[in-house]
Automatic annotation (TrEMBL):
Origin: domain of life: Bacteria
SUPFAM superfamilies: Porins
Keyword Signal found: yes
Protein name as catalogued: Porin
Signal sequence coordinates: 1-26
Keywords assigned by UniProt, alphabetized: Signal
Native source species: Roseisolibacter agri
């Protein structure tokens, strides 16, 4: 081969290799950066017992602000980070949550219908977990906490997702995960109210969604098992959630029901909700929901173990869409049971062979909120 032809071919190869790198380096890094944020701010007041940090005297110290950044490394790879500021009024959980928290921080790679996330990822758990703080897409200030709880909003580890088209308009999405997460709750016991914070490790499981071509219907099934470590003990928990949603014209229906069981100490919680949102006119909707938590009490005399209705709630809201996509809501909730921000006696009296429940308590609270996002 002549020197001229050799030089020409070498130059062509170099151009093919260096051209994409030159284009990438010439691209302004800001062009590969996306910023998203949301604010959900409210004023709340209860009539008797405090609920979710909403006291009888009222509070405006109630909000969630999220800021998310996405940076594209390549056409298939990106890094995502999300921080958020959360204020919970007078909730006993307020002391267990920092003012600013790194909610997500992960690397994502997409290859066709397969997605891999590594780092602190959104945990695929039910219909609303990933948008639990985004008030512009929720009919209430928050998802039903009876099922959601203040836990499992992220997983430190790996999430693998696969999406498949099954034909005839049916899609199947399957996600698997492994890692660790956090669990926080205000628990009602025979001695009062306790704030419980735990780290869950060796957590593994999956979430499947089946999308149907009728009524925008989606069915979901979540299952997970994890080690459970808290100051009072350690053990294992299993969590299963079944989900369903559908939209017919102006009506959207959602329902989820789950169960958490475990050992060390023994645990059996069952919870769920039914929710409906109706768009009456273009800029005004109404929503209603019912939610519950049933919990098993355990005693030294196992014959006394009993499942009881810990919480029953009913809520209603009016939703107004404002200019710029902001949303204003006014919602009212009725709550009955034993789970409030202040202690409520569950077991009024006890003998070695029997016990009696304390009286159930009632409380109402309202929230007026504005949510906006960009």
């Amino acid at each position: 081969m002549s020197p001229l032809r050799l030089a020409t071919r070498a130059g062509l190869c170099a151009a093919l290799v260096l051209a994409p790198l030159a284009a990438a380096s010439a691209q302004d890094p800001l062009d590969r950066l996306e910023l998203h944020g949301s604010l959900n701010a409210a004023y709340g007041r209860s009539d008797t017992l405090g609920v979710y940090g909403i006291p009888q005297k009222g509070t405006s110290d109630y909000r969630v602000f999220t800021l998310q950044g996405r940076f594209a490394l390549t056409a298939k790879d990106q890094v995502v980070a999300q921080v958020f500021n959360r204020r919970l009024g007078t909730s006993p959980l307020a002391g267990a949550i920092s003012d600013v928290t790194m909610q997500w921080a992960y690397w994502q790679h997409r290859e066709g219908d397969v997605t891999v996330k590594v780092g602190r990822n959104p945990l695929p758990r039910g219909l609303l977990n990933e948008v639990r703080y985004i008030g512009t897409v929720l009919p209430f200030f928050r998802p039903p906490m009876e099922l959601q709880s203040d836990a499992f909003d992220a997983i430190d580890g790996v999430v693998l997702g696969v999406r498949r088209e099954l034909g005839k308009g049916i899609d199947l999405e399957q996600l698997a995960f492994f890692g660790g997460s956090e669990w926080r709750a205000v628990a009602t016991t025979s001695t009062g109210t306790q704030v419980r914070v735990a780290r869950t490790e060796n957590m593994f499981g999956g979430q499947s969604y089946l999308t149907l071509p009728v009524a925008n219907a989606r069915l979901g099934l979540y299952g997970a098992r994890y080690g459970f470590v808290q100051p009072t003990g350690r053990g294992y928990r299993s969590n299963v959630i079944a989900s369903a949603e559908a939209t017919v014209d102006r009506v959207k229906l959602q329902t989820e029901h789950g169960r958490i069981t475990g050992y060390g100490p023994s645990n059996d919680n069952r919870s769920g909700y039914v929710q409906a949102t109706v768009r009456l006119v273009d800029h005004f909707s109404v929503a209603g929901q019912q939610a519950y938590t049933n919990r098993k009490l355990y005693f030294a005399n196992t014959a006394m173990n009993r499942m009881f209705a810990e919480v029953r709630t009913v809520g209603a809201s009016g939703i107004v869409t404002l200019p710029g996509g902001a949303v204003a809501k006014l919602e009212h909730h009725w709550r009955r049971g034993y789970a409030f921000d202040t202690p409520v006696t569950v077991v009024a009296s006890q003998t070695p062979t029997s016990f009696t429940f304390g009286p159930r308590r009632d409380s109402r609270y309202f929230l007026a909120s504005v949510a906006a996002s960009f």
